[in-house]
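Crash report, auto-generated. Payload:
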Amino acid sequence: MIDVAALKAHAKSLLEKGSVRAVIGYRKSTAGLLAEPATIADADATDDLIFDPTCVQNLALYLVNDKKERVHSRSDDKRPIAVVAKGCDSRAITVLLQEKHFPRESVHVIGVSCEGTGVVDARKLAKKLDGKKALSVNFDGSEAFSITTEDGAQSIPAAEVMAERCLECRSAHPTLSDMTFGEAKSERALHAPFQAVKHKMKDEQDNRWAFWARQFDRCLRCYACRSVCPMCYCEECVVDSINFAVLPDTTADEKADRIKWIERSPARSETAMYHMVRAIHLAGRCVDCAECERVCPVNIPLRLLNTRLEMEAFETFEYNPGSDMNAPTLTSSFRDTDPNSFIR
Amino acid sequence: MTKTVAMEKMLNKADLAAWMGKLDSHRLFSPALEDEDVWNYMPVEEAAKVLLNHPNTVRPPKGFVFPQREVLYEYSQVPGEAPVLNETLPDPAPAVVFGVRPCDSRGLVRQDIVFTKEYEDPYYQGRRAKVIYVGQACNQPPSPNCFCMSVGGSPCAEDGLDVLMTELDGKYHVKALTPRGSELLAKGGELFKDAQAADKAAVEKAHASAKAHPQRPIKDLGKVAGALKANFDSPAWDEMAKACIGCGICTFLCPTCHCFDISDEVKCSSPCKGERVRTWDSCQFPDFTMHTSGHNPRETLGSRLRQRVCHKFLYFVENHDTQQCTGCGRCVSLCPVGIDIVSVVERLGQP
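Recovered output after restart:
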């Protein structure tokens, strides 16, 4: 079982020694059951750190945000930043390292085990508790969560309220870390890999299009799926109007004539294009943290789009994003043995 | 507004569908599941299935009067001729929206201020005149993050509504609040019985008990604006926004947020033809305040969080003497990273 006190002590000592600028971890939220990401720079505040099955967010995002922020700041502090990383978070960090988004020495990875049970799906849990409010969720062995409500604690089989992505997770233990807490339980595989998308693929093409047309029509275009994705780090995004560098000598005509790839209107064509662009840009990069799906306020099953392409990367090229920081990325590598049936 | 005594009637729960059946001159909407766990205002297809026992809808009802996309005008130009502009004012069929929570109808009152007080927006007004709002008092809090009473509202507030319904044992207490509301009740005819003294006592009791549910408090609401102003330069804004991912959930799903962008959607370049549209925009997006020079005065997440909170609790108060937050709790419940407007106001909005 993960020793949260030891995790706090490690974070505290890193900050006291001054070997890191800050520690990115989780703390309890005032907004609800799920933890909130916390960037802690003060050693005394490390006591706020928690790690339990409510720690759902992929904190690799904050490494990307930190880099952006540092580009604008004038700080010359070269110390690394520490980050708490579950298996999926560590895979995301690995992809960022493969893509040379930042150097290895700029990050201190505090790996945490999700104890074979993964994290909780708040919607499934709410349904399971049937109106009762969960006050806390804790790991309870490798097959259950201990859940506290007003009526006291109860043990619930983890598979019943676990996040979908965790059911299909193939490497639950951090693949990359400088220090790891909790037991190494790398295989979970309650469901076969790509089970959800393979199930969906069985449906007729027309039905699949009808399914996605309905989903795209419901999309709010709040871009939470893009904003929460650690791999969506482009400075210029096709959906934003700032995807055009304005320089002192840029003329008014050039500004007016800029290409709008996707209109702001929430029309099916535009929304479909947005989600397709995102999914294709994630091919061979998506680590299936499924944050895009979790944050969607209207419940669009975005994981299906991304895992469809991950399935392609895996089945065609045996490529597992985030498994080896020294390996080349999928799209920048070539092997003689790669299938080339598409080259004519 | 005419000073008539509010009409109070009783309707058997079983007769709700019959009443809806008599309103076929209007399009009817009520909260329904758009998808698993996603409540939205949907067209009533089968009145008998409307239960009005919904939690807070994910989408507020603001889209009826302020849709995410509004065409302002169509334009076209034949080479060598003058451009032709064709204004496209909306003229929707009349609609009745059932099950509106008092926080959302108070949100509507705030939208009215924005779109009709200083400038009368014909697109907004064209839709507003056609929508009748039937409210539903919250006997039970519809969300764990409700805080309507902390921002001057209540689970049985009437502002912005045409009718307020309160569920009692097997019946609804139905109160008409505007002439439009009275007409709606009149269409129900015999289905409605006059509320007796006992009914009025029962509804008062239900409202009192609704108000007794504990909510998250905001201390000294009257002093929040001043405190926020004093804390404008606080480093806490950056600290509290550190986890913010910069998405549009909090603003798009807010019943009072009303910011929009205007763009031209070219349908054809030769001959030139297209539409000028306004679409929802969000102060949380990175390009919201981007200048053409490339300078962005609200570059950081902290400055954007400050804008959102100060617009609701400082600028709107200065301009219109009321908060622009009605305590529906959506931005708190749906934020992917737990950013909590009540906590922010607690921290930076207290003297």
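Post-recovery validation: The longest strand of chain B covers residues 260-269.
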